[in-house]
Amino acid sequence: MKISVKAIIVAAVAVLAAVAIVAKRGGQATPAHGREAEAAVPKPQSEGPLPRLLDLGSGKCVPCKMMTPILDQLEKEYAGRMRVEFIDIFKDQEAVKKYDVNVIPTQIFYDAAGKELWRHEGFISKEDILAKWKELGVDLGGKPLSGIVREAPVVADARPRDAVCFMCDGDVNPKTRTVVKGDSEQRLLCSPHCYFIYFSSIPGADPAAQDAKVSVTDWASGGAIPATPATYLCGVDAKGRPTVKAFADKDAAAKEQRTSPGSLLGWDVLRSKELAARCGFCDRAVYPEDACGVIVEGGTRTYGCCTHCAMGVAARLGKDIEVEAKDGFSGEPIRIKTLNGSVASLEPPTAIAWFGQKKDAEGKWVSAGCFKQGFFVNEGNLQKWLDARPSMTGRQISIAQSLADKMKLTPQQIAKACKLGECK
Ligand SMILES: [Zn+2]
Ligand SMILES: [Zn+2]
Fold first, then answer.
1. Domains plus CATH for the chain?
2. How far is the CA of 383 from the centre of ligand 1 (A)?
3. Residue 44: what pLDDT?
4. Which of 204, 262, 326, 418 has the most CB atoms lying inside 10 A of its own CB?
């Protein structure tokens, strides 16, 4: 999310004329914490030359305001090791020219000698700022990031590829094994449900063409059968989660129905049932039982297929939301309310997020996808959840950060979110 400075300056020049006369700072930055105070106290010179992070923004733009708590935190946590400064370009128009600012917010990274190393336009997270300093070779004193970080698996995932679901990374139950035949390779899925998640992740997919490629497993014989002519017994498991059993033979399905209650459906009805509930952020098919509940301002209800997608609904719709999530380990409720793209309330206040990440082909950390994300009531529960998932990699982030990560996405990025081949 970026705001064009030229547009702001042109629109606001009349208003600013008066302000500009009062605030004649001439491009002189103030410490980040001093921006609220009229007379900011400069940092003592005694701390010597330090790397410097300069943020140019305004008190009015949303992504600028999102930078405020981040800059405050960095200033506090890295006191004496990095200077964090802020210039309000509404109060100091000279700075626009001096620092050659095109959009706000802009962050400029300087080394201790005052040389500009890098600049960034738009919102940037605390984690990304710290990672950038590291990448630029600037040592900020080696203070570790707070929270749990797992860059390498504790135990590598040794499962054979033909036992792992392409979509959810879960184990494939041989009785519900589902396969999508592609031109060159086939996609192995754990269940018909994961096929519908897969289908809803393909932009502009043609249902008939995709469905024709699918084979499911006959519950009675264990053999592979085409998906579309099969009969499906749809019930619920002990936890109330939907189950789908496929049968080549309708009589065999009816026989199973006597001991395992459910409805017998054809493919088309199964398809519309499976695609009825969608993620309000990425449009993937979800079972409401698995999803986060999202109440959009005005009262509309939707879902987040994962906790991070739930926060993304605020970014996609540009509205305040209320998220009803469950702790990934214990199932305890977590409620988040947003206001103007920021977290306004968090219940319980100790709740944190896990950002499941993996390294891409270029060695860059990217999201590990919707099935690797979660919220937890506290760090202890996250640790227990991770202990049970030794191959999981990623890092702990704040719930505010999980929202901020979504709020900085452009509409184009949101349209591509979680789509096959596009998920970054
Ligand atoms: Zn799956
Ligand atoms: Zn989603």
1. 3-135 (3.40.30.10), 175-274 (no CATH), 286-416 (3.30.450.410)
2. 24
3. 39
4. 418
Closest alpha carbon to 225 in 250, 206, 200: 250
Higher local confidence (pLDDT), 188 or 75: 188
Query: Which H or E run includes 55?
Result: strand 52-57
> Which ligand is closest in space to the CA of residue 306?
2
Closest CA to 335 of 309, 310, 298, 367: 310
Per-residue pLDDT for 15 more than 60? no
- pTM tops 0.70, yes or no: no
**273 alpha carbon – ligand 1 mean position (Å):** 17
Q: Give first-to-last CA distance, the chain, whole Å.
A: 17
Q: What is the largest CA-CA distance in the chain?
A: 86
Q: If you measure from the C-alpha of residue 420 to the centroid of ligand 2, how many angstroms do you get, rounded to a whole number? A: 12
Bridge partner residues of 118 (DSSP): 109
| Residue 119 parent element (H or E) | strand 116-121
Strand order, beta sheet including 30-31: 30-31, 83-88, 52-57, 106-110, 116-121
Placement of tokens 């208003």 in the chain: 15
